[in-house]
Amino acid sequence: MPPAARERNRRGEGERLREDIIEAATALMERAGCDEGLTLRGTARAVGVSPQAMYLHFDDLTTLVLAVLGRCHALMSSVMEAAAAEWDDPVERVLARGRAYITWGMANPGLYQVMYEGRVQAVHEPGEVPPGRKVLWAVRDDVTAAMASGRIPEGDAGLIAVQLWALVHGLVSLRANKPHFPWPDPLALADAGGRRIMGVGAGS
Amino acid sequence: MPPAARERNRRGEGERLREDIIEAATALMERAGCDEGLTLRGTARAVGVSPQAMYLHFDDLTTLVLAVLGRCHALMSSVMEAAAAEWDDPVERVLARGRAYITWGMANPGLYQVMYEGRVQAVHEPGEVPPGRKVLWAVRDDVTAAMASGRIPEGDAGLIAVQLWALVHGLVSLRANKPHFPWPDPLALADAGGRRIMGVGAGS
DNA sequence: ACCTGAACACCGTTCAAGT
DNA sequence: ACCTGAACACCGTTCAAGT
């Protein structure tokens, strides 16, 4: 098919092309299911512009991927925090975040793969705290609160938060990459595993 | 550099080229750290043969990757079972397999990525049980034995085995893909998480 | 039986040029 | 200020041919 020609932007409208590029790249990345799916030339075709025009807004393919990833991480984190906000009990807040993590990852397997399994690494300023880190800290704080109230046994809340992260990432990642395995319901699995890691119901 | 020319094989020595190709492909896959690192042409150059010669032994790039993956899965599984064989206690056998899994994954990040995060899916005959599945079953059986002896609380051993798999895969995968995060010792993390998931030390 | 030369359609990226 | 034409060195894959 001939590339849908795009009418030339006027002065000051260069920003619009940048937005269009990010949007098209996100769609391509999600559809293809991996960073392999995202090509500079393919994105240019989708936007209706020459491959070289990409370099007016992005230094290279990596920079474009980073722009897409920034949006994804912010979005995913906000979804997780929104899920946590519906509960008062710190244990339920932690489990709700885990379910939101898995739900988002399963709904966006292509983007998730680039976010958590791709070679493009998000780079942050020295003082900047990435959104994912904030969520991890929130989990750690909720675990600490649950310990303080005697809801779960004492332990190292930071280590538990990392174990919970590994569990949910492991479930999303394995499910996506080993589709032939007879997976049990990942949400139930994450809830059960999360409770076990936190020690919910373990004899005090 | 000029491709190191390889002397032509005699009749019946075509098998040797096949072996050389798989070996070179494994090295390239490990060095590059991802399937992206493995190119048909690059492997051909490393072996000292023309790109077209690859098609004498492999239908396409995917088939070559599958040949490498078959060896990797068999090797990793045998390492895990060897680690388990050093213990009598079923709980310790499970934890030993987890440590072996993580140790292998961290020692071979490039191969691990292709095995568990790549788009190339290993295909098995209807009746064939892949080596990784056998290890998972062995874990499930050890968990069952630990329950039967009262070492850990009762529960669904199959679900616990999957949770343990997700935990160790999650640790290896996240560690490889988020190198900027201040990771605690993954072996200690896997041991602690594994004990919690199995309910070791939980009040009976 | 074993392997290569030449070609095709892709890719990221660069440089000079056009409006 | 905004964008493209033409080119370079890569890639997987195919087809016809060489020893």
Write the layout of secondary structure elements.
The structure is a homodimer of 204-residue chains.
Chain A lengths: L13 H19 L7 H8 L13 H24 L5 H18 L1 H9 L13 H18 L8 H21 L8 H13 L6
Helix pairs in contact in A: 1-2, 1-3, 1-5, 3-4, 3-6, 4-6, 4-7, 4-8, 5-7, 6-7, 7-8
Chain A binds a DNA duplex (19 and 19 nucleotides) through α2.
Give me some keywords for this one.
homodimer; 204 residues; DNA-binding; 0% strand; Tetracycline Repressor, domain 2; mainly alpha
Look at the structure and give the CATH class of one domain in chain A.
Mainly Alpha
- Strand/helix succession of chain A: HHHHHHHH
Structural Rg of chain A: 20 Å
Named at the architecture level, the CATH assignment of one domain in chain A is Orthogonal Bundle
Largest sheet descriptor of chain A: none
Residue windows where pLDDT falls under 50 for at least 5 positions of chain A? none
How many runs of DSSP E, i.e. beta strands of chain A? 0
Terminal Cα span of chain A: 67 Å
The coarse silhouette of chain A is elongated
CATH fold name of one domain in chain A, please? Answer: Tetracycline Repressor, domain 2
Note the total helix count of chain A: 8
Structural class of chain A: mainly alpha
Fraction of helical residues of chain A: 55-70%
